[in-house]
Design brief:
The structure holds 2 protein chains of 2 kinds.
Chain A: E1 7-8, E2 11-12, E3 14-17, E4 46-47, H1 52-55, E5 84-93, E6 103-108, E7 133-137, E8 143-149, E9 154-155, E10 163-164, E11 167-172, E12 181-186, H2 197-200, H3 205-209, E13 214-215, E14 226-229, E15 232-234, E16 237-242
Parallel strand pairs in A: 5-14, 5-15
Antiparallel strand pairs in A: 1-2, 3-16, 5-8, 6-7, 6-11, 9-10, 11-12, 13-14
Chain B: E1 35-42, E2 52-58, E3 82-86, E4 92-97, E5 103-104, E6 110-111, E7 114-121, E8 128-134, H1 138-142, H2 145-148, H3 152-156, E9 159-162, E10 166-168, E11 171-172, E12 182-183
Parallel strand pairs in B: 1-10, 1-11, 8-9
Antiparallel strand pairs in B: 1-4, 2-3, 2-7, 5-6, 7-8, 9-10
Classes of the chains: A mainly beta, B mainly beta.
């Protein structure tokens, strides 16, 4: 997909990527999420016009994904406890085009709300049959599918009686440095949404809904597992190449 | 046009999921000319950040990217250009890489050698993006369009300093000598 007009006046004019509106970009400083207070920069960000560095990016995949990485219920001797689910969807760019052969990485708590991570001190049981880490590549149409266990909610000490809504972490690369995305997938109708500052750090309600999977009877496998659909949209491209100096 | 899926924090529990054994090795150990790019991530209280993840993306020594949208052809010797390293208990990170070459700018100028750097961490609802430039490239840096647009103190935060085995680049998330971060 090389752009036709890349050579201009000896420079490399590139087609940049559109910037998202403020309502769908969480701020760095969001005091209700306590950990932002000492980690958010105080200076405004400097606008960086896109150059070849930003419109290229690592195309990872081959050799990074094992045979059972997409099935988090089959990575140990026995089956993990909890509600088996399927999470499937399509990775698209902001122009509706599928993003094929791109790496997805997921990680999550177990059914009891505990991560297989040394720093997780929640007094809920670990599951010897669940690590909660998966990877896959999208297919030629940008589609992906994981089999896993529905994660539990867990307390996180951000404020009095603070609980995270159940979520699965997603990491994606797309095909450009500017498309890199780490986000969280939530489950529909979670009663904890209204109490979660991380979810609410995205100020636009429509943007928040884009982080919530939908129940999908079509993905549901009879007598076996409920299906959820979670489509992910990475940034789309500008209409015209930029040739201006910063 | 559809709107993008918003970012959310990487959280504190990614270190069993995202780091790869070879993540810090943009080039294999023993590669001729390889340098260690090392640093510490510090928060607004000057305390090390022990649960950050850093990712790098860069051109090869000839200034080319391992990507089909680089119209000048691929990198030499399959140079991957991507590094990933979590911080340790003292907030330190390191990648082994080759110093990148100059990369063309859209207007015909040339960009000074630089490495694009993403910082993910608990408490960062979106990644922070900065650029690592090299203090021992004064001429190229002086002609770089991105650096030229910055006031001197902001520019100084982007210069990796030479060390015995490579370069040092600390990331200060907040406060005095706060690193210059970019809206990309």
């Amino acid at each position: 997909m090389t752009e036709p007009s890349l050579q201009a006046r000896g420079g490399l004019a590139v087609r940049g990527y559109r910037r998202e509106d403020e309502g769908s970009r969480p701020p760095y400083l969001y005091p209700d999420y306590r950990a932002t207070r000492l980690r958010a920069p105080r200076q405004p960000l400097t606008l960086l016009p896109h150059t070849l560095t930003e419109v290229t990016g690592p195309l990872l995949g081959e050799g990074r994904v094992g045979e059972l990485d997409h099935d988090l219920t089959r990575q140990h001797q026995g089956e993990p406890l909890g509600e088996r689910i399927i999470v499937a969807g399509q990775v698209l760019d902001g122009d509706g085009r599928p993003v094929p052969h791109t790496l997805l990485e997921v990680w999550q708590a177990n059914a009891a709300g505990r991560y297989a991570h040394h720093a997780d001190q929640h007094p809920a049981p670990l599951d010897p049959n669940f690590t909660g880490v998966g990877r896959c590549l999208t297919d030629a149409e940008g589609r992906y599918r994981f089999v896993t266990i529905r994660p539990g909610a867990y307390p996180w000490k951000n404020h009095q009686n603070a609980w995270r809504p159940a979520h699965i972490h997603f990491s994606l690369f797309g095909r450009a440095f500017v498309q890199r995305l780490i986000t969280q997938m939530y489950f529909p109708g979670d009663p904890l949404f209204d109490h979660d500052p991380i979810f609410h750090s995205v100020r636009d309600p429509a943007a928040r809904r884009r982080m919530v999977a939908g129940f999908d009877l079509g993905e549901t496998v009879p007598e076996w597992a409920l299906g959820y659909r979670f489509d992910i949209v990475l940034r789309g491209r500008d209409a015209t190449p930029t040739e201006e100096a910063p | 046009m559809s709107a993008a899926t918003p970012s959310q924090t990487v959280g504190p529990f990614f270190s069993h999921a995202l780091p790869w054994p070879d993540g810090p090795y943009v080039v294999p150990a023993g590669t001729q000319g390889a340098v260690w790019l090392r640093g510490t991530v510090l928060d607004g209280a000057g305390e090390p950040v022990p649960d950050a993840l850093l990712e790098t993306w860069q051109a090869d020594p000839a200034g080319r990217f391992d990507h089909p949208d680089d119209p000048r052809g691929g990198t030499a010797g399959g140079f991957r250009g991507f590094g990933r390293c979590p911080t340790d208990a003292d907030g330190r990170w390191a990648i082994l890489t080759l110093k990148p070459g100059q990369v063309p700018a859209p207007d015909g100028r040339r960009q000074a050698p630089h490495v694009a750097l993403s910082v993910f961490a608990r408490g960062l609802l979106d990644r922070l993006v900065t650029r690592v430039y090299f203090a021992d490239e004064p001429d190229a840096n002086a002609a770089d369009p991105v650096l030229a647009a910055l006031p001197a103190p902001a520019r100084a935060t982007l210069l990796a300093q030479p060390t015995s085995d490579g370069y040092r680049f600390d990331v200060r998330l907040q406060g005095e000598q706060e690193t210059t971060f970019f809206d990309i």
